[in-house]
Specification:
By secondary structure, this protein is α/β, with parallel strands linked by helices. It has helices at residues 16-25, 46-53, 56-60, 97-106, 141-147, 152-155, 163-177, 181-185, 204-216, 232-242, 260-270, 288-297, 311-317, 329-341, 354-366, 411-417, 452-458, 480-491; strands at 3-8, 30-35, 83-92, 112-120, 125-131, 192-198, 221-225, 248-252, 276-280, 302-305, 322-325, 346-348, 374-375, 396-398, 418-419, 431-435, 441-445, 470-474, 494-496. The chain has 18 helices and 19 strands. Strands 6, 7, 8, 9, 10, 11, 12, 13 and 14 form a 9-stranded mixed beta sheet that branches. Strand 6, helix 9 and strand 7 form a beta-alpha-beta unit. Helix 9 (204-216) runs parallel beside helix 10 and helix 11 packs parallel to helix 12.
Length: 498
């Protein structure tokens, strides 16, 4: 058995020129060593590990061979890490009651995940998960064909393999080396990491109920959406009654405040609630001046998805207080490193069931600036697909210590929820009704695109934020009126005056 420990350099002060180059290239800032911790095996130094595993080519691209003699780069493959089989199974995990009411409006396809299992020549097996219709990359047949027969260590940093396969490779290598995944990602900096509860935009009553449940289960942070089709003031008011002041709420507007001029008065009012802790993407992220104005307008920090605007622009112009980082292992490590160099905190946003949430926790163990509560969305589901569900205590969750992912998948649950993989993203008919206090009504229907309702809000094609507004999904009752409204709304929002 071989144990690989990757040590990550501590953040240090660097020049602006170097920071610029770092953000543009996003290189790995690794130093490393390899040891054997198994009593029956002799110590294997890093050169021996690289030559035996055939990992030279993969690690050369991320700086792990810096300073090694050229002779050490000649691989002598170890067949133990050879990938002999890859299996995939699709599951449809139902939402809990409150998330079901919310998620069924716009993104019901989040119920579909694919569990990927990788077997190595050594006999070790690793598992991973892809949320099929919300991911940086799904594992396709071509990725599987390319991986079969390859050395798992050599290809596991390749984000293009897709979420499930990459995760399974790390899990298998960790199992084979008898180390947790975070030992393959870097130096462990903490024994616990912050996690947040998540749900999409909901009614004030449902949001308060979800926050109360999150608090009961040990969470101290909740992320949701701010939308013009729900009363954001009532959402905060009801939640403030349900949880104490030390509970933290992040409101993600996904650009729907549109401009700083229109949004700042609303944000100032919402900032009066002590639980309000983050604004995420309040207006379009490339609006430099607008985001600067929002940062100055309230006490609440602004979070932005890393990459838009370009990180150099974001850092130089101080348009946000921190980032939202997700994606594959290489991208997360790279962006986490840049954030550390710039001393910018961030939250990890790596989404799925408990399997993916466990994977995310390993990054939380090694990334120094993953200080904000991670968003993994596993709380949406009736089952986490784990024998032991993820536990949170006063906002923190312990880092797994077992080999690989360090969690045990509930295969009975996988069998229970197993379905045939859809040929395409499921698109059930949905008609959504939004109502205002003065009697106005708007009807919006799915049109074949993801986030079809959000797009209308981002384009300013529905009334702006107001008190008293409410939204619900109208089930198909078989009536002629429903069918007519649905047909009209599929072409565009239908506004019925008061």
């Amino acid at each position: 058995m071989i144990t690989l420990v990757v040590s990550v350099a501590e953040p240090r002060t660097i020049s602006q020129d170097n920071l610029n180059r770092l953000a543009l290239r996003e290189p790995f800032m690794f130093s490393h060593q390899t040891t054997s911790q198994h009593s029956s095996n002799p110590r294997i130094d890093r050169r021996q590990f690289l030559s035996r595993t055939g990992a030279t080519a993969a690690y050369a691209g991320i700086g792990l061979l810096d300073g090694l003699p050229k002779a050490a780069a000649a691989p002598k493959p170890n067949r133990a890490f050879e990938i002999t089989s890859i299996d995939r199974v699709t599951v449809k995990v139902p939402f809990r009651e409150i998330p079901h009411r919310a998620m069924s409006r716009e993104i019901p396809h989040w119920m579909y995940s694919e569990i990927c299992s990788v077997k190595l020549k050594s006999g070790h097996v690793g598992h991973g998960e892809t949320m099929l219709y919300y991911t940086y990359g799904a594992t396709e047949d071509a990725h599987v064909a390319r991986a079969i027969g390859k050395n798992a260590v050599e290809i596991m940093w390749d984000d293009e393999l897709g979420a499930g396969l990459q995760m399974a490779l790390f899990d298998a290598v960790g199992e084979a080396c008898d180390v947790p995944v975070h030992a393959l990602l870097g130096t462990q900096l903490t024994n616990e990491t912050p996690l947040a509860w998540w749900n999409i935009d909901t009614s004030p009553r449902d949001m308060a109920a979800e926050c109360a449940e999150a608090y009961r289960q040990g969470y101290r942070a909740y992320k949701t959406k701010g939308r013009p089709w729900f009363d954001v003031w009532a959402m905060c008011e009801e939640t403030a009654k349900a949880v104490p002041d030390d509970f933290h709420i992040a409101l993600d507007f996904n650009d729907t405040l549109l401009t700083a001029e229109r949004g700042i008065p609303i944000l100032k009012e919402l900032a009066e609630f002590q639980q309000m802790t983050f604004w995420e993407t309040p207006i379009f992220q490339d609006d430099i001046a607008g985001n600067q104005a929002i940062r100055k307008a309230t006490r609440v920090p602004v979070a932005m998805h890393y990459g838009n605007p370009d990180p150099i622009v974001a850092l130089k112009n101080e348009v946000c207080d921190g980032f939202v980082i997700g994606g594959g292992a290489s991208r997360v490590r790279n962006r986490g490193t840049v954030s550390a160099m710039a001393d910018k905190p961030f939250w990890l946003q790596i989404v799925g069931t408990g399997i993916t949430a466990t994977w995310s926790k390993h990054f939380g163990a090694v990334l120094s600036h993953a200080k904000w509560p991670a968003v993994n969305c596993h709380q949406l589901y009736q089952h986490q697909l784990l024998i032991e569900p993820i536990k949170v205590d006063v906002g923190m969750s312990e880092i797994p210590t077992g080999p690989g992912l360090g969690c045990e998948i509930d295969w009975d649950a996988v069998e229970k929820y197993k379905v045939r993989k859809p040929a395409r993203r499921p698109e059930p008919p949905r008609l959504i009704e939004t109502t205002w206090l003065d009697g106005r009504k708007m009807y919006i229907a799915n049109n074949g695109k993801v986030n079809f309702m959000l797009k209308i809000g981002q384009e300013g094609r529905m009334p702006y934020f107001e008190r008293g507004v409410d939204t619900k999904l109208l089930p198909d009752d078989g009536s002629t009126r429903w069918k007519e409204l649905y047909a009209s709304a599929r072409k565009g929002p239908v506004l019925i005056p008061a």
